[in-house]
Amino acid sequence: MWSPCSSRSLNRLSSHDRESNFFSTDLLFLRTEPQVSEQSLESQLMAQTTPNHTQTVSGWAVLDSSGKAVPHTFKRRENGVDDVTIEIMYCGICHTDLHFARNDWGITMYPVVPGHEITGIITKVGSNVNKFRLGDRVGVGCLAASCLECDFCKSSRENYCDQIQLTYNGIFWDGSITYGGYSKFMVADHRYVVRIPENLPMDATAPLLCAGITVFTPFKDNNLVDSPGKKVGVVGLGGLGHLAVKFGKAFGHHVTVISTSPFKEKEARERLGADDFIVSTNARELQAARRTLDFIVDTVSAKHSLGPILELLTVNGTLAVVCAPDQPMELPAFPLIFGKRSVRGSMTGSTSETQEMLDVCSKHNITCDIELVKTDNINEAWDRLERNDVRYRFVIDIAGKSSNL
Ligand SMILES: [Zn+2]
Ligand SMILES: [Zn+2]
Q1: Nearest Cα to 104, choosing from 65, 153, 140, 74?
Q2: How many CB atoms lie within 10 A of CB 110?
Q3: Where does 109-263 have alpha helices with state H?
Q4: Burial 49-59 (b: 16+ CB within 10 A, else e)
Q5: Residue 13 above 60 pLDDT?
Q6: Closest listed ligand to the CA of 159
Q7: Which ligand is nearest the CA of 146, by number?
Q8: Which distant-in-sequence residues (6+ apart) come within 8 Å of 194 by Cβ?
Q9: What DSSP letter does each residue of 287-304 carry, written as one string?
Q10: Nearest ligand for residue 21 CA
Q11: Where is the Alcohol dehydrogenase-like C-terminal domain (predicted)?
């Protein structure tokens, strides 16, 4: 998914020059050393603060805006007292990976090692870590760090912390650039690591760590996890949408898929269990479904108007937007006003919500529908993802025998 906080990785560097509450002593040191100002701030940080990055890792990275993934060796930090080291088994391919690979948002720090849908096995445990042991099955999603001090961090909503650092293309507290899951192992702060329930497979669970949590939290925030019998709409039937359908059905709701593609109806109804299907370009079908839905989650990142979707909501209904088109979305006032409707956003989920989602998935046997790919086929998978030619998520077999790592 698209992560609005990605850009903060860079914004943070400049804004924290002026703030007094930043707790990285290395960066505080740099702030008082004006003579290093001729270098870029990033290279200062890397040079000054990463002496403990001694572990050599093989992975796949994109080196420049050509956007092609190639084998790449890089360094990770030693396992610190709050860290766990994870031998990566699988990593899902998220559309965000493509955006960063191609520098679509102008904030990519090459080389970028993508991947924030990571599952693996713990091989080292820091001395402050109590909740994990060697051999545990764990996952890492979009978050690498947050400030731990703000109201959001203190109330298990750290995904809304203003200082969050992402699993890749972020800047960790030691000043190093973060590298993601397209790699053999990673070192992660245990506060952003979740446990994978025993009955969930490691490959088909990987995409739950971004795609899954992205559509789970809107259900949770709108009290739809434990209150069955509502009428729920899902706009778009891709990686996120198919999981939203699974959640909606597992939680006992009547689920309507809203899609531009009539040919997806059979799949939606017969394989995923959707109750209804609306072709969003068909005015008659839209009119017939006016004011019928209590809640809609919109998973489409292509530019589209929210007006016709809002009309499907009953009075006081809610539309949750979880994907971001490059252009502003069209939001007409009349359907909002005449239906007293709300539009709200949602940004993945916190670590505790991600654990809650995995436990719910364990209970209902929900996993992502995946196509497993070898590391050598990452570029091919990216090309197919670009064409929406995937059912429904690619997952890279990092630890498999055929892996080129
Ligand atoms: Zn993602
Ligand atoms: Zn915080």
Answers
A1: 65
A2: 15
A3: 151-154, 202-205, 211-221, 239-250
A4: bbeebeeebeb
A5: no
A6: 2
A7: 2
A8: 138, 139, 140, 141, 209, 351, 354, 355, 358
A9: HHTTT-EEEEEE---S--
A10: 2
A11: 239-362
Does 96 have pLDDT greater than 60? yes
- Name the band, by pLDDT with cuts 50, 70 and 90, for residue 345: very high
- Read off the pLDDT of residues 236-274 as tens digits, 9 standing for 90 and up: 999 999 999 999 999 999 999 999 999 999 999 999 999
- Contact yes or no for 8/143 (Cβ under 8 A): no
pLDDT digits (tens, 9 = 90+) for 284-319: 999 999 999 999 999 998 889 999 999 999 999 999
Residue 115, pLDDT > 50, answer yes
**Spatial distance between the Cα atoms of 33 and 28, rounded to a whole number of angstroms:** 9
Please list all protein residues whose beta carbon sits less than 5 angstroms from ligand 2, which is an ion: 146-147, 150, 153, 161
- The closest ligand to the CA of 347 turns out to be 1
**C-alpha of residue 3 to centroid of ligand 1, in Å:** 8
Q: Amino acid identity of 199?
A: N
Please list the residues that pair with 91 across neighbouring strands: 118, 396
219 within 8 A of 227, measured Cβ to Cβ: no
From the CA of 144, how far away is ligand 1's center (Å)? 13
Token pair for 75: 């360094």
In the chain the domains, ranked by start, together with CATH numbers, are 4-210+368-397 (3.90.180.10), 211-345 (3.40.50.720)
Please name the residue ranges forming H helices in 268-377. Answer: 283-288, 307-310, 333-338, 351-364
Centre of ligand 2 to C-alpha 141, Å, is 17
What's the mean per-residue pLDDT of the chain? 89
Give, in degrees to the nearest 5, the angle at Cα 372 between 368 and 376.
Answer: 145
Rounded-to-integer distance, Cα 351 and Cα 159, Å: 8
| Cβ 376 vs Cβ 399: under 8 Å | no
Specify the amino acid at residue 267. E
- DSSP one-letter string for 151-195: HHHHTT-GGG-TT-EESSSSB-TTSPBP--SSBSEEEEEGGGEEE
